[in-house]
Design brief:
Strand order of the largest sheet: 1-2-5-4-3-6-7-9-8
Order of helices and strands: HEEHHEHEHEEHEHEHHE
Length: 282
Amino acid sequence: MEAWLEHMVYADKFRGRDGLYIDAAAGEAETVFARDAHADLFRVEDGSFWFRHRNRVIRACIDRCPPENGAIIEVGGGNGCVTAYLEKYGYKMAMFEPGLTGAVNAKKRGVGHVFRAYFNRETVRENSVPAIGLFDVLEHIEDDRAFLLEIRSLLRDGGLIYLTVPAFQALWSQADEAGHFRRYRRKPLLALLQSCGCAVRYASYFFWFLPLPVFLLRSLPYRLGKRGAASPRQNRLNKKEFIMPGWTDKMIDLLLAPELQRIENGKTMPGGGSIFITAQKK
């Protein structure tokens, strides 16, 4: 384990080698559906416009407000899609993922430091972490305020939180039933972070064009009862929704290019299917 990590995590709680560290006390931390979900995502992430653009937005925002010494721990990192991407651009990364399938997939993707464990006071020292990434994680937490308070306690003073979440409860659909508790609007989310002792440095929507097609193709049929509550098997990801034909993929990149440029310049978007926030521990 590298020196920059040793003062953050309780190394004696983990076993493993070659960058995959396992908290033996955590037990089996995922359901059969979680394993399926990680496997489904692993098949689509590298070729998906959605994951590609989200990674670019995340990097643009972090580049504008980088952490101390470039060190970030991603929490709930799944298959390591974001962690591996940021490592390529020089950030010192580690990720925590309680699901074994996701942790193993992250190592396959080349992530250097993967902790198959929960990220909490039992595994990480308080006031030690310079920056934490929560990328589409918060909506999976039932008590999001308690979770953010614990995350804050593990950050060092002035430490940063980078997070993304799905936007607008009106866009709720069958897809959200795979473990989501809510979708967010920017203003209430900022208030939540501030109530947890964090100052918001930047906040913007992104995926500006997605709300309308998501509402028409997912949310409206769901509301009309044409797509009711689904079983885990029915909630398996539809690859066609993530992998577009070549010309469509290029067209989507063109549609999203101005948004990315605005975000790179520190400007914000007034609406979109997701939200990005940089917050700092007061």
